[in-house]
Amino acid sequence: QITLGRATKDNQIDVDLALEGPAWKISRKQGIIKLKNNGDFFIANEGRRPIYIDGRPVLGGNKWKLNNNSVVEASA
Which of 22, 28, 38, 51 is the most buried (most CB within 10 A)? Predict the structure, then answer.
């Protein structure tokens, strides 16, 4: 699994989204991408703001299946 979010000295993540825009709008743990046993990738939104997958919002607490070449955008 890969974690997306905002790194702090107490919170290490795999992809630091704060390097790309306003850090205060990114949750420390914005999302997690997981590989399922069947080979599918899913993203779970762990933050308060939506994550956009191919232009569709995925709200906090929800998950979405990623397709080949999906575009993932954090709401910053």
Answer: 51
CATH number at residue 45: 2.60.200.20
What's the rounded Cα separation, in Å, for the pair 3 and 14? Answer: 5
| Cα 61 from Cα 11, distance rounded (Å) | 20
Q: 1-28 burial by CB neighbour count: b if 16+ within 10 A, else e?
A: eebbbbbeeeeebebbbbeeeeeebbbe
**pLDDT, tens digit, 9 for 90 and up, residues 38-68:** 999 999 999 888 999 999 999 999 999 999 9
Domain of 25 in residue numbering reads as 1-72
